[in-house]
Design brief:
The structure is a homodimer of 374-residue chains. With 374 residues, chain A is of the alpha/beta class. Chain A has two domains: 13-21 and 266-366, Beta Barrel (Lyase, Ornithine Decarboxylase, Chain A, domain 1); 25-250, Alanine racemase (TIM Barrel, Alpha-Beta Barrel), CATH 3.20.20. Chain A contains nine helices and 17 strands. Chain A has helices spanning 25-42, 56-63, 75-83, 98-107, 120-132, 156-166, 189-212, 228-233, 343-347; strands at 20-24, 45-46, 70-72, 88-94, 112-117, 137-142, 171-177, 220-222, 239-240, 270-281, 284-287, 302-303, 310-312, 319-322, 335-339, 352-357, 360-366. In chain A, the strands form two sheets. In chain A, strands 1, 10, 11, 12, 13, 14, 15, 16 and 17 form a nine-stranded mixed beta sheet that branches. An eight-stranded parallel beta sheet of chain A has the order 2-9-8-7-6-5-4-3. In chain A, helix 4 (98-107) crosses helix 5. The longest helix of chain A has 24 residues, at 189-212. The first copy, chain A, is globular, with a radius of gyration of 22 Å. Chains A and B meet through strand 10 of A and strand 10 of B.
């Protein structure tokens, strides 16, 4: 069931079939360079999250600019990237169930792999499977620093789990996973800063308790596009996982920047390209991109080149552009760039990236791990 | 990039990897039989919408129970189904842009195909391309009967477009597409009935005007799972397009049934199967199905076998089950069936259906047209 690409290299942008996932390569590369420069200046390891892009080509572009490897969220996502040549991956998630654990352990024979835990029984399951396959698994303890998703509490619960990992025959304690997901989309800069200050202090306290038990915590990993400058400057986090900085979805665009060195300058580089397919009335045109080509969990997409026009009322394969007096005039067949509200689940709806520079298609990259759900 | 299936035939349900799209085959078949019986009784043609299931296997199951063919929303969706042997398809949508029109016209050489129009320039484009390929295209005029999406106004505008179609050298006027999408999710039965009464009367008036111009309108097609019994009984609609009746998403489950013969009895047959992957606190467990395995545009999924537990706060690969005093007790690795809020965009996130009967995997069907966006 492979879906053929919506474009050919060399084609003019306006010839690209729609809906399609397009990347403005100039902005995309500037975003990568900017982040590479920042993490070098901060002296931290950069391991961007590949759940954003799911692409081996993009992972390679990040690694050529200094990223040590990537993060994945799912075992099959990691498998797809390893198959495509990306062999340094941290699974920033718990892996539960015998089948998934088997796949993870087999993958650890082919890649530098890490995994997270937050449950004692799961630590035993991982160790049993690793022992059966004679593999040593790098295992990080996930702590809940404010996101209230997965993770054990910082402090004694984390220390107990780290001790169990460290004493397991086929696991190595690889450090702490301390991602504060909820902090990423807090609008106010100062509130985001405070959230990460709190997270870092919970990590610090846990590290102190680990040290008291003679457990070395060599790595503290976390951070996202909303907060990475704080983790990077914390002196606590050693590794940053930001991913969305590449594309900058419409939601991240609503975060208030600070006056720090790194807040500004990341641009929207990812768009869903769509066609005006119906002109039902003077106040409205219909485009061919809806629920099956964009994610709406973080709000409506933004019309990139016409801010006075609003995208509204999506259905599966349609969306409405509500026109105002200052909107562009649209005719049938016009192509429109939409900035998705949330890039990660939008990318997962597409099989191809179309890389564009100077209105021309320069690259076609498969979404390597599209649909890698398990 | 084909994704391998999450199950094998013969496997116990609990062994299926997650997140996975599972079908309760007993309920699914009962839904199909019930609809087949209804449309037979009504004496209308049944052409279910394949944008719901995107599956050649399911299209065949519907056609073996009397469906004349299926509807598609996209040219590539139709291509995928034609390639898989389903050769009677109505594209219930406008096809705009030279590339898409070319594909449509080429497909019309391999299948009994219809397409919709709502624009005079588009009629010319279709005719030019059909002429170039020496194909005759069955072309329906879409009228807006209340949905305010695509479609021309009923009455004179529709008649003018039908005349243009009928006088085009390589197009045949195939009738009226009159789908009232907005009516489908009106909660009150009587309000849905009135909405379709209004739609049918707009169609009737348009047909009268067509007849006055000696244009034969042989087909009026439309209807969805929320209203099909009204179109079926209208004496105006000749063909029904309902699709979601197969699966019955959580949103349709909230529509108020009437006391008519056909309102009751369609059951939820489609589930996203998920695993409890973290037990962070006594009031909450985390499952491995989130924004990348379910659609949330029509609300949260419903926990199928535990109504006192609520799914909440999805992220890309996680969701939270909020437990109450009467919730089940969950342990790590437990599997949970979730009823998606909206089936169509949920199906499009998966590559495989896992058909289950008596807790055992009986069928594995590819989502044939998954990701067929163009």
């Amino acid at each position: 069931m492979p879906v053929s690409p919506p474009a050919e290299i060399g084609m003019a942008l306006v010839e690209v079939d729609t809906p399609a996932l397009i990347i403005d390569l100039d902005v995309f590369e500037a975003n990568m360079e900017r982040m590479a420069k920042a993490v070098r200046a901060m002296g931290v390891v950069f391991r961007p999250h590949a759940k954003t892009h799911k692409s081996a080509d993009i992972a390679r572009a990040q690694m050529s600019r200094g990223a040590v490897g990537v993060c994945c969220q799912k075992v099959t996502e990691a498998e797809a990237l390893v198959d495509a040549g990306i062999t340094n991956i941290l699974v920033t998630n718990e892996v539960v169930g015998q089948k998934k654990i088997e796949r993870l352990v087999r993958l650890a024979k082919r890649a530098v792999l890490g995994v997270c835990v937050d449950n004692s029984g799961n630590v035993d399951s991982l160790n049993d499977c690793a022992a059966a396959h004679d593999v040593r698994l790098d295992t990080l303890v996930e702590i809940n620093v404010g996101s209230a998703r997965c993770g054990v509490s910082p402090g004694p619960a984390a220390v107990a789990l780290a001790k169990q990992v460290a004493s397991s025959s086929h696991l190595s304690f690889g450090g702490l996973q301390a991602y504060h997901g909820r902090a990423q989309h807090i609008r106010k800069f100062e509130e985001r800063r405070l959230a990460i200050e709190s997270a870092a202090s919970q990590v610090r306290e846990t590290m102190t308790q680990l040290a008291a038990e003679d457990i070395v915590c060599a790595r503290v990993t976390g951070a996202g596009t909303g907060t990475w400058q704080f983790e990077g400057a914390s002196g606590i986090y050693t590794e940053l996982q930001a991913g969305s900085y590449l594309f900058m979805d419409a939601d991240y665009g609503q975060n208030e920047d600070g006056d720090d060195e790194w807040s500004h300058g990341f641009g929207h580089s990812l768009f869903v390209y769509s066609t005006v397919m119906s002109l039902p009335d003077p106040a409205r045109v219909v485009v061919d991109a809806g629920l099956k080509s964009m994610a709406f969990d973080s709000g409506m997409p933004v019309v990139a080149d016409d801010p006075s026009t609003e995208y509204a009322r999506p259905s599966d394969e349609h969306g409405n552009l509500q026109l105002s007096a200052s909107s562009k005039r649209y005719t049938l067949g016009d192509k429109v760039r939409l900035i998705p509200g949330h890039c990660d689940p939008t990318v997962n709806l597409h099989d191809w990236y179309v890389g564009v520079r100077a209105q021309q298609v320069e690259a076609l990259w498969p979404v390597t791990a599209r649909g890698a759900l398990f």
